[in-house]
Specification:
Helices cover 33% and strands 26% of the residues. The protein is α+β, with helices and mostly antiparallel strands and 430 residues long. Bound molecules: flavin-adenine dinucleotide (FAD). The site of flavin-adenine dinucleotide (FAD) has 39 residues, from helix 2, strand 2, helix 3, strand 15 and strand 21.
Length: 430
């Protein structure tokens, strides 16, 4: 192996949407890539999500106006935000997250996320085709229905931002909504149809199809828990579950909600701390009633859920109900209260059969204080690259992350501005 070949060798830790995307994009640039995960690809957060790919996701949760709406978010029955006592474990994230709910952060974040979302959308489309799973993508947008005119009015600021960014939307009145989604109960006065959006019918299957592409093109796969990461002269060493050490000149940490835990346990990043938070969310599947369907996911803000039409592993139609945010310690025991409340709300707007047995799932959206993922090389740690912190949109923005990271690692001009995602923004806070 010559020197050039050695320097273009990389190990990607984590095979969720983000890690698999990094592996695919690096491989496309001629890197020799090893992908490592303790499970098969796509079994964690990248499996359980709502499968939405939308330009409207440029709006972070911590935006101007969050402070004013906090009392109602915290006190309202059935709110899409629940705070549990164990959330205290990530209070450092919480106060920073709230501090970023201001105009100056919002302006940087919305532009940055929009760039990443658009790059990801183009890349997803190319990869879905290459992996022969383009049939899993539905170009039907997604819907935000509102029960009252007042609720619709309260979304005006968000709609204005979407308009500024040129995101295609249409406001529907009750009859127009009924024409688009005839099976929804007639309880909504308005809806916003976000047309610059698509969705997939099985997120796990998409990650697995991308991973299969990676293997087919000669990528290496190791299934093992990574216990520790250590810096070595001219590279990095990761230790597998059997205690064996593996050397690599470059390593990408793409472990989603577990990324910072590994960095901390390994003590490889002095003077650098992201302070990640965990926005937990649940899902439950329901069998569909014959003749009743949804053409696209709906995001019912007042009911605090997203309902997405999906296919299960046997190809059967199911409805996946996903909940809003539960702030709690990442590994705290599940509390099904939010899921039950979301189910009650959803049943009022669409007939659904019983829940699919054993379908309940809990995952953590990995969120940085400024709602922008961390993509790039850690300062003063050459060869240690990060790709994590994708909050509510990591399924959709994994591919753009992979492309950007592969460009940075190959020292090429980048498709989007990398600075808003650079790890060095977390250096000064420590
Ligand atoms: C309820 C809910 C709904 C969502 N809806 C959407 C949506 O509609 N659209 C969207 O774009 N995003 C959505 N998201 C967010 C999205 O799912 C995440 O941002 C994304 O999946 C994160 O991907 P990831 O690859 O970073 O993490 P993950 O998919 O969690 O992958 C991390 C991987 O690391 C592995 N791992 C962890 N520790 C170790 C270790 N020590 N050794 C080896 N392997 C390890 C895990 O096994 C896992 O495979 C939603 C999230 C939730 C919770």
């Amino acid at each position: 192996m010559n020197l050039f070949e050695t320097s273009r060798q990389v190990t990607v830790l984590g095979a969720g949407m983000v890690g698999v995307s990094c592996a695919l994009a690096l491989q496309a640039k001629g890197w020799r890539v090893t992908l490592v995960d303790q499970q098969a690809p796509g079994e964690e957060t990248s499996h359980g999500n709502a499968g939405v790919l939308s330009r409207s996701s440029l709006l972070p949760f911590n935006r101007p106006g969050l402070w004013q709406s906090l009392p109602s978010l915290l006190l309202r029955q059935g709110s899409h935000l629940k705070i549990r006592p164990s959330a205290i474990t990530h209070w450092q994230w919480l106060w920073r997250f709230l501090w970023h709910a201001k105009r100056s952060s919002f302006e940087v974040t919305t532009v940055a996320l929009d760039g990443l979302i658009q790059l990801s959308s183009d890349t997803h489309r190319a990869w879905l085709k290459r992996a022969h799973v383009e049939n899993r993508l539905r170009d039907t947008g997604w819907l935000w229905p509102y029960a009252h005119t007042d609720a619709f009015k309260s979304g005006a600021a968000s709609r204005e931002v979407l308009q500024e960014f040129g995101v295609a939307t249409e406001v529907l009145n009750a009859p127009a909504l009924r024409a688009l989604e005839p099976h929804l109960a007639p309880s909504f006065s308005h809806a916003l149809w976000v047309k610059d959006a698509a969705s997939v019918d099985n997120p796990r299957a998409v990650v697995k199809a991308y991973a299969a592409q990676f293997l087919e093109a000669g990528g290496q796969w190791v299934q093992s828990k990574v216990s520790v990461l250590q810096q070595r002269p001219s590279g990095w060493q990761w230790v597998d579950q059997a205690g064996s050490a593996h050397w690599t000149p470059h390593v990408v940490v793409a472990l989603g909600p577990w990324s910072e835990s590994l960095l901390e346990a390994s003590q490889v990043t002095a003077n650098f701390k992201v302070n990640m938070g965990f926005e937990r969310g649940y899902h439950r599947h329901f069998q569909t009633v014959e003749g009743v369907s949804l053409g696209r996911p709906i995001y019912d803000l007042s009911g605090a859920y997203v309902l997405s039409p999906m296919k299960d592993e046997q190809g059967q139609d199911v409805l996946r109900l996903t909940t809003g945010v539960e702030l709690a310690a990442r590994d705290a025991a599940p509390n099904l209260q939010q899921l039950e409340s979301a189910e009650n709300s959803a049943r009022r707007v669409l007939p659904m059969k019983s829940a699919v047995p054993h379908s309940d799932w809990l995952g953590s959206r990995p969120t940085t204080p400024d709602s922008r993922p961390v993509i790039g090389e850690v300062p003063n740690a050459p060869g240690l690259w990060l790709a994590f912190g994708h909050q509510h949109i990591g399924f959709s923005t994994g591919p753009g992350t992979g492309v950007l990271l592969s460009e940075l690692m190959s020292r090429e001009a980048t498709s989007i501005d990398p600075r808003p995602f650079a790890p060095d923004r977390f250096e000064a806070l420590f």
